[in-house]
Amino acid sequence: MEDDPSITEHAINPAFDQIRTEWDEEAFTRWYNGQTGIPMIDAAMRALHEIGWVNFRSRAMVVSFVCNTLLLDWRKPAHALAGLFLDYEPGIHYSQIQMQSGTTGFNTIRIYNPVKQGIDHDADGAFIKRFVPELRSIPVSFIHQPWQLPNFNELDYPSPIVDIPSANKKARDLLWSVQQTDEAKSTAQKQLKKHGSRKRKEKERERQTEEQLSMDLFE
Predict the structure, then answer these.
(1) Which domain holds residue 149?
(2) How many domains, in total, are found in the chain?
(3) I need a labelling partner for 179 at 20 to 30 A (CA). Which of 111, 138, 154, 163 fits?
(4) Contact present, 185 and 105 (Cβ < 8 Å)
(5) 10 Å Cβ neighbour count for 76?
(6) Coil, strand or helix: which one is 57?
C-alpha cells in the first residue's frame, strides 16, 4: 500500500482486466448473501455476516469463487469483504484479493473447487450446518452436493449458480491464456521487481553491513 496505493482500485497487472468485462449483479448478490447453492461458499459468506471472521482457506476460496469461478471483477467483492472482515487491514486485504483473483500475473493462479474443499475440510458438514440451517436435516452424504438429493426441490435452498467443473475450466483457460501473453509477462516482471524490491534491498543492506563488520574486525 505504501509503494502502490492504487492497488485498491487498479489491477496490479492490467492485462487481466480484459477477461472480466461483463458484470452480473445478481450473481454478485447471491455470492454476497450466501445464496449461491454451493454449501461451502454459502456457509463461509454467512459466517462473515454473522461473526465477521473465517479462516484463510475460506477467505481464499470465496474470493477465488466470485472472481474466478464466476469471473466477476475483483473490485466490488474486495470492497464488500472489507466491510465484513473484523480484522480488515487494507495493506494485507487488497494485495491478497489481487493474488487470489489472479490479477498480479506473478502469483500462481488459484482456482478452488468448493465441493472438494468441503469434503476435505468439513467432512461431516458441521460448519455448513451451523451457518446454512436449510441443510441441517439432510444426510451427511449429500451435505456438499445437496442438489443430488432426490427431493432437492423440496428444500428451501437454491440450485447451484454454476456448474463448478465447467466454470473452473473456463476460468483456468482464460487466466492462463492471459498470463502467457507478452504484455502480461512484461508487466508481471516489472511489478514483481517493484513489490519485491524492499525485501531484496533489506538483504542487500544486511550483506553490506556484514561486509563492513568483517572489514572493521580485520583492520
Answers:
(1) 5-218
(2) 1
(3) 163
(4) yes
(5) 14
(6) helix
| Distance (Å, whole) CA 133 – CA 202 | 51
Q: How far apart are CA 181 and CA 186, in angstroms?
A: 9
135 close to 125: Cβ distance less than 8 angstroms: yes
The number of CA neighbours under 13 Å toward the Cβ of 50 is 11
Contact (CB, 8 A) for 112 and 65: yes
Q: 16: buried, middle or exposed (CB in 10 Å: 19+, 13-18, 0-12)?
A: buried
pLDDT tens, N- to C-terminus, the chain (219 residues): 777 788 899 887 787 887 887 899 999 999 999 999 999 999 999 999 999 999 999 999 999 999 999 999 999 999 999 999 999 999 999 989 988 998 876 767 889 999 999 999 999 999 999 999 999 999 999 999 999 999 999 999 999 999 999 999 999 998 888 777 777 566 667 677 766 655 544 554 565 555 554 444 434
Distance CA 19, CA 174 (A): 7
Whichever domain contains 108, its CATH number is 1.10.579.10
